[in-house]
Amino acid sequence: MGKGNSLSNHDEILATSNRVTKMGVFQYDIQQNHIDWNETLKEIHEESYDYIPTTENFYGNIESANSKNQILQAHQEALRNGTPFEIDYKIVTAKGNTRHVRTSVQPIQKAIEITGIYGVTMDITESEAQQADTLQKLKQLNYAEKLAKSGSWEWDIATDTLTWSENFYVIFNHDRECPVSYNTYLSYVHPDDKEKIIAKFEQALKTNYFPESSYRIQLKDGTIKTLNSIGKVITDNIGEVIKMVGTCQDITEKTERERELLQKKRQLKLTENNNKSGSWQLDLIKDEFKWTDNLYRIFDFKVGDKINFKTLQDYIHPEDKELVQERFAEIINNRKSHTFKHRIVLKDNTVRTVKVISDAITDSNGTVVELIGTTQDITRKIDIEQKLIEKNQLLNFAEHLTQMGYWRYKPELNEVFWSDNLYKIFDHPKTNKLTFESYFNKIHPEDKDFVKEKIDQSISEQNFYDFTHRIIVSANEIKVIQIIGKVTRNLNDGQLELLGTCLDISRNETKELELSQKNQRLSIAEKMAMIGHWQWDTAKNTVYWSENLHAIYGHDKNKPLTFETYINYVHEEDRETVVTNLTNAMQNGDFPESTYRIQLDDGTVKIIKSSGKIILNKKGEVLEMSGICQDITIARNKELELLEINRQLNLAEQMAMLGMWVWKPSKNIFKWSESLYKIYGFESGSEVNIDIAIAMIYPPDKGRVQKVIDDLLKGIHQPRSIYRILLDNNEIKTLEVRREIYKDEHGNIELFGTTQDITHIVETEQLLKEKNHLLSFTEEMASMGSWQWNPYTGVSKWSDNLYKIYDLELGLPIDMDLFLSRIHPEDSKIVTDHIANVVTTKKNDSLLLYRIILNDGTIRSLELMAEVVKDNNGKIIELIGTAQDVTDRIKREQDLLEKNQLLNFAEQLSSIGYWKWDIVNDVMEKSENLLKILDFDQETKLNFNTYINRVHPVDRKKVIDVSRKIIETKKFDKFHHRIIKNDNSIRSIKLIGEVILDSEGNVIELIGSSQDITEQIEVQKKILDTNRNLEKSTITLTSKNKQLAEFNHITSHNLRSPVSNLNALLAIYKSANNETKKGEIFGKFEIVIGHLTETLNALIETIAIKHNAVETTQKLCFEQTLLKTKEILAAELIESNANIRCDFSKAKNVKYNPIYLESIFLNLVSNSLKYKSENRVPEILITSNIVNGKTTLEFKDNGLGIDMKSNGHKLFGLNKVFHKHPDAKGVGLFLTKAQIAAMGGSISAESKVDVGTSFFIILN
């Protein structure tokens, strides 16, 4: 069937198009000056079917003069140059109705002459209304997103097309002109969170579920934001994912507030723990206390017990009860803070002294409703003989960063040590011996002179200068490394050495790649209607498609067309249905309207609406089919778009706990979104009006809200207000309302806005204020201040009390230069090294003691405690901590230290040492002189076994029997025994002691002193020999015995007399009135000190030992250790037929003490064999693993097992046995635990009787 230009031909082709869309066709013949509209076009213009259009109203009765001019110009251009055009405009129909139409015009050309035009006009009124509604919804969504700091997104999986809402661009600070895709989005995700986000999207594609999550983004300017994301996966009718939609909310501020609150809690906890203090609140109405955990511990209460004022009074010392009542009454009556001290009596009658700082909290009427404060246990502060806190200051350059290693270099010996990671950085084999040349040869030739200059300068000035340089490793790879170090002297050999860390900083920054869009769309004359027409000659199987149908199907016009071509474009899931419909149509002669999908060569899926007609011959055979196809993909998507926007709007409201509302007072319209019903606790859809909303307002706020409403009705804009509501369940919520005022065409007020539930935010802010208040009390009490420091920005925040400690003006900006300027010059390097170590290692294991100099020259000593705050990926966010003025405490410690030194000298003079034995844990504390008497190293960890091994073999049973008798009778009678020293010399030791009991009367400790009485015994023996042989010298011998007894008495019971003599001489010297007498006394003073000094120096030289010896460790293989154990226990293994299995695949080696590791294996394996079950063959499984960076071992057997309920608490005790085995000594597990603990590890066990036992070991 041929193609023609006549209007009747097109009417025939498009006769059924009205069922697809309301579209009219027109034609203008220039030569005949004839205009023709089809019936549909007349219906669009609401004209009668006999209406004849003219050139004046060719395009209908156009409403706007501007539109009329535009159409006239386009019409003339089409007639003159053959230029097609398309335009949207409004018409006024014959019946006076306004309609929105879209007209597309195509010139008709023969040769080079324009003979006419034809076109299509489509009624798009309903589409425009839908679009306006969509725009309104989008406007509301944008408004809600701005308020909630949220944005919505949609991702088309097939096309990788990502659509962002307006506010999403704002959150990401992304240029709206730049296209976005999935990779664009990923480029913003923080590097540390990117892997997690990619995994989340991959899981969503697999499971059709999009989980809620929080993550960070990093903007192009470096700004980091925290987002909370929720979403939904959309699938097609066969369950395939076609798109994802969702909402992201910027929760950076919320996260920061929560972090700040957590930080304050940490600071308060740090302060309380460091200060032995606790915070409290007393509700006077309910008579109910809230205590922090530390306060429960101070009062020796169970954490969580209910406490009221009467409970507190029961524990106040009887003499202080009246004082406490008076002070609390003063606080309530005067409504101001008070500080006072009182004593408390614990359940075990222990008396403690506490310091209380309290303040009153009033309501809006000025009535005191609550007391808050802090209570500090100051017992230890007033106890002069308190034990001093041991301080450890560690300088450790560890490999906690991925590309870091540590090194040590002794220039004089040309000795170099590298950590394992440094070998990897320098790509150097570990087998080769290291020298300075090993390092220097790797340096880039251009950097060698610079490096040598820096190292020589560091050695000559004995002050390390940090530097950065390049190295060349294998395959000519160039790395950039940073060297940080220090110069010191080795404690062992006194050699000068350089030590420090080396950091590989070669990492290249990742480059972001953006995909460019390569698709160009074809624009044709029928673009407006997205329609194409077709004809099919069934006999010849020839097919004709209009130009636009080629574009819709994406088919090349130069390629042949057949029915099979068309069918191949139909989506495979719809193909059978389409073929069936065509077959039925050819049989029935009726072509039904149908909708189906097509799939283009590039994979694009479109939705097609088709209608047509069939031409039959006289025999009823099909000659030809013709019809139209419309691409309704966009129209169908627009129908879903409005629903999707509503879903996104609901998601945004739920995330922000926010609801939307509209109030038009003149029209009595009051509408709420579904989320607002939930906020008010109403059933969704129930009737609401302004009176109901006002009735819900909390009574104290009602008057203020009513005034705002009155102002709004007068046209006075009140954009924001906050008030409370009272729900039916008596729950009080705090709401924030934001609103906009508009006026309708009659000038009536109309309002719409949002209401957000901010109850949690208000409560968090209030709690933060209370915590700050309590923290201030605690800091003032303890002469302490808290601080925060961001090592990346250098910004510091100090509490008010810290400003007072440093004698600085409140609010003065604090930076590192100001902080360091106050530090005593002698302590500056200690402080800077400590800070560098904390930042480098990302941890702080010790307190820092340093001095500061105030404005008036006063020197104060401070003790700094710090905690490193890290994110989920281990990166430092900031450092927080406390600084306490410990000047007075240091002075007391120094005085006590001096007195302790004098006491130690006295011990050495009289050969006496002091000890304390913890019976329960078998741990001994000892004085230095006791170790000297027993001939032990200072590092020796004393327990009963260690001590008994030093006792003379003949006396061992006596010592064991006496020890048992002391524990049984709870009475310590002095006794003596002999010991054998390392040089095989024998000494006699006298022990005097006392028994310490717990509250139940059980022996828990023995304390006492040991004196070397060897010389005394030898003298006594000589005296006895002399008495028998020289009876005539009785008088002389008696006299000497008396002198010896007096000397024994002095050395045994007057250990402090040398110190007392010195103090007495000093007191007499101070009280002397003339210089002559002072000179005489001073001469005696010098004589006493001279003799004492000579004696002490001699003793000091004999007892001097080497401290801090480092125990040798080696890299050990578990399999080799197990093999050696099997060889040792070969006989037992053969006899028992035991089966030992192992799995060391997860951790093959460990750096450990070889003797200890072999002992652990031997003890645990031999235990499994010793306590095997007689009913089964012994099975022993040994496995290794790495948990949290530490190597672990598990020994599992199927032996007799242990009743853990009865014996678990004493499993590792000395001489504890649990089976009637002839070889059971109760020593093996005791030694094993001691060895593991000595290396910084731990051991635990699980066991079941007649099933077996598992031992779990953490090797440090």
Automatic annotation (TrEMBL):
Keywords: Kinase, Phosphoprotein, Transferase. Its EC number is 2.7.13.3. It is an enzyme of class 2 (transferase). GO terms for molecular function: protein histidine kinase activity. InterPro entries: HATPase_C_sf, HATPase_dom, His_kinase_dom, PAC, PAS, PAS-assoc_C, PAS-like_dom_sf, PAS_fold_3. This is histidine kinase. SUPFAM superfamilies: ATPase domain of HSP90 chaperone/DNA topoisomerase II/histidine kinase, PYP-like sensor domain (PAS domain). Pfam families: HATPase_c, PAS_3. Residues 291-335, 537-589 form the PAS domain. PROSITE patterns: HIS_KIN, PAC, PAS. CDD domains: PAS. It catalyses: ATP + protein L-histidine = ADP + protein N-phospho-L-histidine. Residues 1050-1260 form the Histidine kinase domain. Residues 211-263, 338-390, 592-644, 846-898, 973-1025 form the PAC domain.
